[in-house]
Amino acid sequence: MDKELLYVFGTGNAAATRLYNTCFALRCGDEFFMVDTGGGNGILGILEYMEVPVSRIHHLFVTHEHTDHILGVVWMVRMIATAMKKGEYEGEAHIYCHEGLVETIRTLCRLTIQDKFYCMLGEQIRLEPLKDGDMRHILDYDVTFFDIHSTKARQFGFTLTLNNEKKLTCTGDEPYNPLCESYVKGSDWLLHEAFCLYAEREQWKPYEKHHATVKEACELAETMQIPNLLLWHTEDSNIAGRQRLYQSEGQKYYSGSLFVPDDKSLIIL
């Protein structure tokens, strides 16, 4: 069995300038399931650097409408449509999002992309609306999408079981809500936001933005007995020391394997 890999494209929060916005992809064989796109065309350079061909991305999930998650979709649609017209992209592309986001994505593309590319949206590039609890078969996975019950903008996360039988769950970019327990419980991997260190909460004020700190994310994973916790969607004031500092604080509250990845990094799942 091929190793299943997590391609970490970006790890920064919306206001980060030294990190790209949080987005990533799961690789299974030669295909990728991409989740979010960041806030601009920086995603194109990251894909090139990490040797992820656009022609191998047939499934893209957009969690919600905030700029740091959705604006890169415009560039992905443009590049996929270009590859299709050149005969360099086989089959259809699927963009998954909750029902309320379909028209938003369509409008962004209509206002910013040439008609020759925009006209492919809805034909070869399909927008796939999701309801809470919907399941789609993507790559080798049965992916279940769920409403995270955001307090800001409607947002979906997802959960799936990898080929190695480990359960992986992404709860979006807000703290875990107990209403999502049925989806998160039993996860072997939890992908969770951590806006900043608990020790720096007065400086960054995460709670005002409805975000968690390293401490809360780690306490959650410990309570739910999740063996692997990955933290991202962070501030970027100290990139060089971020991993060391986040792990140092996190290990006070969590006994599992704690990951604080850099942009453009790979994690074996």
For this entry, give a set of tags.
9 helices, globular, Metallo-beta-lactamase, Chain A, 7-stranded mixed sheet, 269 residues, single chain, alpha/beta
Indicate the topology.
Elements: E1 5-10, E2 23-28, E3 31-35, H1 42-49, E4 57-61, H2 67-70, H3 72-85, E5 93-98, H4 102-112, H5 115-118, E6 125-130, E7 135-138, E8 141-147, E9 156-161, E10 167-170, H6 181-184, E11 189-193, H7 201-204, H8 214-223, E12 228-232, H9 239-250, E13 257-259, E14 265-268
Parallel strand pairs: 3-4, 4-5, 5-6, 10-11, 11-12, 12-13
Antiparallel strand pairs: 1-2, 1-14, 2-3, 7-8, 8-9, 9-10
Helix pairs in contact: 3-4
How do you describe this structure in short?
The protein is built from 9 helices and 14 strands.
Give a written overview of the molecule.
The chain is of the alpha/beta class and 269 residues long. The chain has one domain: Metallo-beta-lactamase, Chain A. Helices cover 26% and strands 27% of the residues. It contains 9 helices and 14 strands. The strands form 2 sheets. A 7-stranded mixed beta sheet has the order 6-5-4-3-2-1-14. A 7-stranded mixed beta sheet has the order 7-8-9-10-11-12-13, covered by helices on one side. The longest helix is centred in the N-terminal third of the chain and has 14 residues, at 72-85. It starts with a strand and ends with a strand. The mean pLDDT is 97.
